[in-house]
Amino acid sequence: MSVRLNEDKEIVARIREGLKMKNGYCPCRVEIKPENKCICQEFREQMADPDFEGYCHCMLYYKSKD
């Protein structure tokens, strides 16, 4: 398994700016709660799933199965 940033630098820049504005909480989520702190709980669970391959909700990170 490997996790990397999205290859689209514009997306990465926009998401990182959103993270700064929300003090590290996912800019794609409305609620400010611990499970939405980047790297969010949803993506941590997806990273733990050996069958999951794909982007996190906000498309900042990509998990590959290799």
What does this structure look like?
This protein is an alpha+beta fold. It has 2 helices and 3 strands; from the N terminus they run βααββ. It has helices at residues 9-21, 41-48, and strands at 2-5, 54-55, 61-64. It has a 3-stranded antiparallel β-sheet with strand order 1-3-2, covered by helices on one side. A hairpin with a 5-residue loop joins β2 (54-55) and β3 (61-64).
Structural class: alpha+beta
Strands, count: 3
What value does the Rg take, in angstroms?
12 Å
Largest sheet: 3 strands, antiparallel
SSE string: EHHEE
- Per the principal axes of the C-alpha atoms, what is the gross shape? flat
Query: Uncertain segments of ≥5 residues (pLDDT<50)?
Result: none
- Strand residue content: 15-25%
Global mean pLDDT:
96
Give the structure's gist in a few sentences.
This protein is of the alpha+beta class and 66 residues long.
What are the SSEs and their pairings?
Elements: E1 2-5, H1 9-21, H2 41-48, E2 54-55, E3 61-64
Antiparallel strand pairs: 1-3, 2-3
Notable characteristics:
15% strand, 32% helix, three-stranded antiparallel beta sheet, 66 residues, alpha+beta
